[in-house]
Amino acid sequence: MRLTKTTVPAFAVIALLALGISACSSSEPSDTASTASATPTASPSASELVGGDPSTWSPVQVTADDDGSTQSLVVGQAVIFEGFREGSVFDSSDPLVFTATAAQGDGESGTVAGGQALAAGISEVIAKDGSTDLATFTFIVTAQ
């Protein structure tokens, strides 16, 4: 491209216009811009459940340190019993409200002990190692 006497002033005018336009613009976002680019945040009320189906939520973790505690659950919600010895058994006073299972495995792979809220009601779960009671938990299950 060959620069002529009119090409250089034309570039200068375009550059000055660009600087003038950017100098006149506000650095503050307009209401429209901030609304369109804002990241939505969840702000649930106390009575609102977030996440839909309780069976898809992260399980509630219960340990031996929670002995004597009462846990509130929603039907479908899962519980993991953490830190109990292999062979510990979990007995539910009402398996129709809360079902509990012991850890199972073959030495190489296995599952952790846990349970799931099945229906509204109250169930007491006792963690046992043989005839020794390790911990007792009360689960209050409500319908969603």
Please explain how this structure is put together.
This protein is α+β, with helices and mostly antiparallel strands. The chain folds into two domains: 7-35, no CATH class; 54-142, Immunoglobulin-like (Sandwich). It is built from two helices and ten strands. The protein has helices spanning 7-24, 31-37, and strands at 60-63, 70-74, 78-82, 89-92, 98-101, 104-105, 110-111, 114-117, 121-129, 132-142. It has a four-stranded mixed sheet with strand order 1-3-8-5, with no helix packed on it. A four-stranded mixed sheet has the order 2-10-9-4, with no helix packed on it. A two-stranded antiparallel ribbon has the order 6-7. A hairpin with a 4-residue loop joins strand 6 and strand 7. The longest helix has 18 residues, at 7-24. It is globular and about 35 Å long. The N and C termini lie far apart (73 Å).
Q: Mind describing the biggest β-sheet?
A: 4 strands, mixed
Number of strands: 10
Shape: globular
Structural class, judged by helices and strands? alpha+beta
Q: Can you tell me the CATH architecture of the largest domain?
A: Sandwich
User: Number of helical runs?
Assistant: 2
* N-to-C SSE string, H for helix and E for strand: HHEEEEEEEEEE
Helix coverage percent: 10-25%
> Overall pLDDT, averaged?
75
- Count up the domains: 2
Name of the level-1 CATH class of the largest domain: Mainly Beta
- Looking at CATH, which topology of the largest domain would you report? Immunoglobulin-like
